[in-house]
Amino acid sequence: MRSEAIVVGGGIAGAMTALALARRNIKTTLVDRWEPGHSRASSTDYNRVIRSIHGRDEFYTRWARESRERWLEMQAETGQRLYYECGALVLATAGHCDWEDATAETFQKLGVPFHRFSPNEIAVRFPQFDPHDISYGLYEPEAGMIMAHRAVITTIDLFKKAGGTVIRGRVETDRTERPMLEGKPLEADVIVITTGAWMGDMFPRTVKPISSVVGVNVLYTSTPDGSTAFDQENMPCWIDHGQGSFGLPSTEGSGVKAAVVIPDTIDLDQDERLIRRQTLNRTRSYIKKRLPGLVGEKVVDSKFNQIVLTPDTHFIVDRHPEHENVLLAGGCSGHLFKHGPVFGDFVAGVGVKDFGTADRFRIAGRKKLSPKESPSGR
């Protein structure tokens, strides 16, 4: 097949890249193995946190701020509710606050609105949380959540309206890692690979050595009968590094989303997307410790999400070393979705050679960073 641009993978990275290419008046085809928004994708689930909190990393902080504006613009353009600005609260564990301290310094430097709350202030301002082992809370009011599934579907719809084509098919690679569809090489001026967790298996020499796939079990817990305390109007999203957890308030009746991040394994093509039973006890133990008002409430939904981790938790945006027209884009490291609009526009620009990629996104030279240096705090 021949097209000016082909994007392989229809999650948020691929959808936003395809839309950005189509809006540059480039004939673009988007290929995915399943229906856009399918439940196997890394971009699945109801919602994702959007926040500018990235430690000392100014690059991602600026990207997150710009992405927020673009999500709001897309929401206004489409009339779809894509963003809830409920704020984001980072709970800084006593004695382990390097990432949170660095974030506060970055916010001050860049002029990002934030508040620093003592444990007593957290208890008053956000009584849903028990802050007994917290040093302080870092609250970003201009943050919240993106409705993930709806955002992917809305982006695909905009792509089609911009003249883009969506087709179903499984793209694989040959021995040289050249992309193939139905046994024939893909042909286009630029081929962008945004297949998320599948990218490592597609490119075993190029991507697999710098990426790993982990599963994250997510539970949704019912809000208390007759109470609005845990709804997004009254409760922020939160990150609790000391407990290896994060969560989002109930939105559109979802229940409270909480994940205790204990990396799990997954066979992308063989495993069913069901949470592990032992996760239930781990999450309930966390809720008992941090969200006592939810003790005894029932789990009403669950999701099994997968993320791709790079050693430094930076994204991948780089050309294949043997195929100049193949651009690899992904490496979510758990924080790509919120950057979607800016990421897609950037990848499109690199793809058509309007500019080069950033050094941090190159395949070569990857190394693990300390939590203090990491943009994700990992």
From TrEMBL:
Keywords recorded for this protein, A-Z: FAD, Flavoprotein, Oxidoreductase
SUPFAM superfamilies attached to this UniProt entry: FAD-linked reductases, C-terminal domain (SSF54373), FAD/NAD(P)-binding domain (SSF51905)
Superkingdom per UniProt: Bacteria
Family annotation (Pfam families): DAO
Cofactor(s) this protein requires: FAD
Domain FAD dependent oxidoreductase, residue spans: 5-348
Entry-linked InterPro entries: FAD-dep_OxRdtase, FAD/NAD-bd_sf, MTOX
Record protein name field: FAD-dependent oxidoreductase
Organism: Hoeflea poritis
Lineage: Bacteria, Pseudomonadati, Pseudomonadota, Alphaproteobacteria, Hyphomicrobiales
